[in-house]
Amino acid sequence: MNKKEVKALEMKTKENDLEAIKTLAQAYFNGDGVKKSKGKAIELYTQGAELGDGECAYILGDYYERGLIVRQDYNKSRHFYMIAAKAHHPKATYKMGYYLEYGYGIYKDEKEAQKYYEEAKKLGYHA
């Protein structure tokens, strides 16, 4: 990615363009055309998640669940998985079921967990 493309993406992120946000976040994560910055990647993924983007929210949920780049935090992980599940992200929907079944970052509720598992399956996710 060249400097002109980066500038164009930066302008679009200010307009809350989700594709630009995801592309630029990935560029910062990998150092593609910009100085590698995991912090800037997290900031952009958070922007996308706050706008309701399922993929951005799923990525953050995964990072917080596994302690990648950020300190492991099941409450934050659950928060981002919930945003992603509301956006019909199949794997995040499954993860919400798992969190509810085992009480990660949330109370245990096997009945509610089953609903998430069933919804994940309808969305095409098969564990």
From TrEMBL:
InterPro entries: Mitotic_Regulator (IPR052945), Sel1-like (IPR006597), TPR-like_helical_dom_sf (IPR011990). It comes from the Bacteria. Pfam families: Sel1. Transmembrane segments: none annotated. This is Beta-lactamase.
